[in-house]
């Protein structure tokens, strides 16, 4: 990585995708053809499908986390109407003219602001991705007014409700997963509903993703391979957006999610907490060989920034368990991962 030319932060702004007839040099990935060829060798798979209201949901979630680090969820309690409204508002945002979206451009390196921009992992790669995003933390009203001076209320109402519902769902999922690990209610409270001012509150973010049609999809990357930092991420895909996961022993596997499901994946922080039992799964997005505009909505659930995450080492049998990672402050881990170009787990391994 040291000898590659990384674009300076000032250049990390999305293309005006509607104005390009060919893929610019800045977005041509040198190994994209090989990546595409490898995809054809993989079989599409269906992730474990879990009914959240089933009696054995905790056990099913835990087993899926151990085997895959990712699963599909049905009976999750998020109304179809709300999801469709969030889809509609996401589409409305990304089909605005580029000059309008740029009015809400996030400053380089900003982690605490709502607005338009590129994925945070862009800074780790010499080539840019065929992607644009809009991150929402709390109310998007200030930025929404810049996008739609006279018609911003519906976007705000829908996105605020979507975040409320996702927050409740995230808490419910993580509680069931932590129950599977045998973690106490007291420890769960710190991670999920802390009122301790010294450690702060859980941190959530909603990221709207856009993958525009591409004149040469075989030469670009939608979203480069990465792991999420979160405890967990809840993803809604509008159609099949080219999501793939890396499965040990198999390679890159294109996913075929069931219609109406939400996809949940484990992030680094839950990987650490589980002492490596739950893999923080490597995933990426490839641009499809069609002319459709693809979207997704990703909700990231993180614990309070000042809390320390320590491996939970309950013995699985009579054999004692030892921590694989050192205890790490959440804010510290974000900083470590950024310094290590997105690869934080090896840096804290014991």
Automatic annotation (TrEMBL):
Cofactor entry: L-ascorbate
Keywords of this entry: Dioxygenase, Iron, Metal-binding, Oxidoreductase
EC number(s) per entry: 1.14.11.15
EC class: oxidoreductase
Domain called Fe2OG dioxygenase: residue spans: 201-303
PROSITE patterns given in the database record: FE2OG_OXY
Gene3D superfamilies in alphabetical order: B-lactam Antibiotic, Isopenicillin N Synthase, Chain
A biological process term (GO) from this entry: gibberellin biosynthetic process
GO MF: gibberellin 3-beta-dioxygenase activity; metal ion binding
Pfam family, one: DIOX_N
Superkingdom, taxonomy of origin: Eukaryota
Associated pathway: Hormone biosynthesis; Plant hormone biosynthesis; gibberellin biosynthesis
InterPro entries, sorted: DIOX_N, IPNS-like_FE2OG_OXY, IPNS-like_sf, Iron_ascorbate_oxido_reductase, Oxoglu/Fe-dep_dioxygenase_dom
PANTHER family listed in its UniProt record: 2-OXOGLUTARATE (2OG) AND FE(II)-DEPENDENT OXYGENASE SUPERFAMILY PROTEIN-RELATED (PTHR47990)
Sequence similarity: Belongs to the iron/ascorbate-dependent oxidoreductase family. GA3OX subfamily.
Protein name, as recorded: gibberellin 3beta-dioxygenase
Species for this entry: Cucumis sativus (Cucumber)
Gene of this entry: GA3ox4
